[in-house]
Amino acid sequence: MTEDDQDAVFHALASQSRRRMLDLIKAAPGCAVSDVVRHFDVSRVAVMKHLAVLEAANLIVSKKCGRVRQLHINAVPIQMIHERWTTEFSAHWAGRLTGLKYRMESRK
After folding, report:
1. Where are the domains of the chain?
2. Which stretches of the chain are DSSP H helices?
3. In angstroms, rounded to a whole number, what is the distance separating the alpha carbons of residues 101 and 30?
4. Helix axes 3-13, 76-106, angle to 10 degrees
5. For residue 103, what are the CA distances in angstroms to 74, 84, 100, 106?
6. Cα–Cα distance, 49 to 107 (Å, whole number)
7. Beta carbons within 10 angstroms of residue 100's beta carbon
8. How far apart are CA 77 and CA 8, in angstroms?
9. How many CB atoms lie within 10 A of CB 71?
């Protein structure tokens, strides 16, 4: 994942509306754009612009089925960022907690 890819993900997730759209799509995989539009008090065009940002960040995948565009979440970019930022720190703190556990047990 390039720095530009990460920037796109962070930009997409910076919007409360886009995060809500991701939640809706996650809860109803394959939902139509009209299903998402129904939950917002903005125009269909505004929702489509938000969805375009999410798709550009590779956070959603859309598939055209006849006249309906089905939406699916793609959690891979979020997982990659999570691993980049937490794996090293998680290992560090897990090791520290294990050491603390052993020290506390040895005092018994």
Report:
1. 3-106
2. 3-13, 16-27, 33-37, 44-56, 76-106
3. 46
4. 90
5. 43, 30, 5, 5
6. 61
7. 10
8. 10
9. 25
Q: Which residue has the higher pLDDT, 19 or 93?
A: 19
More confident residue, 36 or 86: 36
The reported pLDDT for the residue numbered 64 is 93
Alpha carbons 3 and 71: distance in angstroms, whole number: 25
Q: Which CATH architecture has domain 3-106?
A: Orthogonal Bundle (1.10)
Distance CA 48, CA 55 (A): 10
Residue 24's contacts (CB-CB under 8 Å, 6 or more residues apart) are 31, 35, 36, 39
Report field, pTM of the whole predicted structure over 0.85 = no
Q: Is 80 helix (H, G, I), strand (E, B) or coil?
A: helix
Q: Tell whether the torsion through CA atoms of 58, 61, 64 and 69 is positive or negative.
A: negative
